Amino acid sequence: MAGVLLRPLLGTFTARAFTSPFTTNIRASAAQLPPRPVVSENDIEESFLKGSGPGGQKINKTSSAVQLKHIPTGLVVKSQATRSRSQNRSIARRLLAEKLEEAEKGSESRTALKADIKRKKKASKMKKARRKYRLQDDVGDGNDEISEPSKDGTQSGTATLDQKIDK
Predict the structure, then answer these.
(1) Four-residue CA torsion sign, 25, 28, 33, 38
(2) Full-prediction pTM beyond 0.85?
């Protein structure tokens, strides 16, 4: 142990999550979502299939794709997202539960609510972008004179940028 320098801890660490004031809206919207749906194992018929598509010989030889059939409704879901059978099983179960909930609840389902939140965020983002570039276009391309319509509707009057801002 000679020559080893031990440094004291510079603080205490707790196991609480870091919360940022910027994530409050995301957490609030996530709190409004209903819980994830659960499907009974007795209602599911599971089969394993050989994969298809890109991935080469390995994906075509192994039976890692999962197909689930919901017996009461006849709804069938297939998943071959990964090369792992266990991951494909969990993905297929989640997809089946989401599809069943969407068929049962319609626009009140978890997936519909998530899509609505995503659509609203995209619309807000697009609105901000339009506002930003509209303001840049209003200021112009370095031209300090801005034409104003006169009383008869023609573009004859001019004002400097400083006069326009003071108004």
Answers:
(1) positive
(2) no
